Amino acid sequence: MEAKKEAHWYAFYVRMHHEKKTAEKLGMSGITHFLPIQEVVRQWSDRKKKIQQVVIPMLIFIRTDEKQRVELLQRMPSLTGCLIDPSTRRPAIIRDEEMDRFRFMLDYSEDTVHFQSEPLAPGETVEVIKGPLQGLQGELVELGGHSQVMLRIDHLGYAMVEIPVGYVKRL
Fold it and tell me: Which residue has the higher pLDDT, 120 or 18?
């Protein structure tokens, strides 16, 4: 039976501290991938420094078909497996719309984007109407007294960024 040739986004597990090297190898091979990275300021006792930080440790997103997905796992020792959809027990497919919104959030957020895999109660569906994230749709939640826009990524968790309530409207 021939594997489907249709490409989808998959979340691949990566050996600890191998995310950037794996992304580099995938890029050199011409394979479409996305490693969520953001610039953050780290404070040491004597200085501050901007560093590139992986948003979801030990995970990289790769757009591939089923046959190449299996080949990548065999060929690249830094890839240790795929996120599994518990309902089908097959590798979880991340929808294009979820990836597009997540990438938009990372590209345009002025604040640090946090990732959380624990379940949260659903909130109001909102759209950001002001600021660099204008047009982004997600759920409005409150954590620790701060308003955040949360994007659900099925099977994986939630990407969240703090945002003023006046920057969003209910959908």
Answer: 18
Residue 135, token pair as written in the block:
């047009």
Residue 73 has pLDDT above 90, yes or no: yes
88 in helix, strand or coil?
coil
Give the Cα separation of 171 and 168 in Å (integer): 9
Residue 51 structure tokens: 């560093």
| Backbone φ and ψ of 85, nearest 5° | -80, 115
Give CA–CA dist 114/144, Å, rounded: 14
List, for residues 110-137, the tens digit of each pLDDT value. Answer: 888 888 776 666 677 888 888 888 898 8
Long-range contact set of residues 65-71: C-beta below 8 Å, sequence gap at least 24: 65/3, 65/4, 65/5, 65/6, 65/7, 65/8, 66/3, 66/4, 67/3, 67/5, 68/31, 69/10, 70/3
**Euclidean distance between CA atoms 84 and 138, whole angstroms:** 24
Q: Which residue has the tokens 């795929």?
A: 82
pLDDT of residue 102: 93
Residues 130, 166 contacting (CB under 8 angstroms): yes
